[in-house]
Specification:
The chain is mainly α and about 240 residues long. The chain has one domain. Helices cover about 65% and strands about 0% of the residues. It is built from 12 helices and 2 strands. A two-stranded antiparallel sheet has the order 1-2. It is globular, with a radius of gyration of 19 Å. The chain starts with a helix and ends with a helix.
């Protein structure tokens, strides 16, 4: 009896270790087909995306790497269902009632709302001629969702996020490029705040750098593999260089 209990306990420990040992290479191997599809799609769109990122003075390889894990997870069928729900519920009631991630880069309405507000408070609004209606009206929400459905507009939003992140978190630009990729990816995945020019602390991002929260299932139970988002982004960045 004791021996049987020990065997069960040992197997359980092995399972836990296996679950926790998931890394970026495991993710790429286990999602090989989706990885290839996402890479192929990115290659097809790279010129158009690059024009936007270049226009905002954002490193194209960094930008693509940051959203690549979301592109791998992206489900076309699920996305259509979520867009339909967002168009009805979000437009009518706002992001507190409906906040599904949509688009290739899996952006949430609440994320874009916050991003637009912070952008309108920055000095870059006139420089890049990007202005938004941030009022809580049906018209503003409808326009926002229409933008979010478009890949190129998601590139614009990503560019805005990256520019604001570098503005708000002093010292980020001085870090080695790989560390920049990791921290920007962490901020994107975690929805880290944009507190205002120079007010962010790098330690806040660094503390969250290695947390395993990223998964590819709709409802992630405790036994579902979880990954470090920034490690996957960094692996993709290495492929692009």
């Amino acid at each position: 009896m004791v021996q049987r209990v020990l065997i069960i306990w040992f197997c359980a420990c092995i399972g836990i270790v296996s679950m926790r040992a998931q890394n970026a290479y495991d993710f790429r191997r286990e999602h090989h087909e989706q990885w290839i599809q996402a890479a192929r799609y990115a290659a097809e769109q790279r010129e158009a995306w690059g024009e936007i990122w270049h226009g905002f003075e954002v490193d194209s390889a960094l930008a693509e790497a940051v959203v690549f894990p979301e592109m791998v997870r992206f489900s076309k069928l699920q996305n259509y269902a979520e867009i339909a729900a967002v168009k009805v519920r979000y437009v009518a009631m706002g992001s507190r009632e409906c906040n599904y991630s949509i688009g290739r880069f899996q952006m949430k309405p609440s994320f874009v709302e916050t991003l637009e507000k912070r952008w309108m408070q920055s000095t870059m609004t006139a420089q890049y001629q990007a202005q938004f209606d941030t009022t809580q009206t049906r018209e503003a929400r409808t326009a926002r969702i229409n933008r979010m459905e478009d890949d190129l507009w998601q590139c614009v939003y990503l560019s805005m996020f990256i520019r604001l992140l570098y503005t708000d978190y002093s010292g980020l630009k001085a870090l080695p490029k790989e560390e920049q990729v990791a921290l920007v990816a962490t901020a994107y995945n975690r929805g880290c705040p944009l507190p205002g020019a120079g007010r962010g602390q790098l330690a806040y991002l660094q503390k969250r750098r290695n947390i395993r929260l990223f998964h590819t299932v709709v409802i992630a139970g405790k036994n579902a593999p979880h990954y470090v988002y920034s490690d996957i982004a960094l692996l993709r960045y290495h492929e692009l260089r």
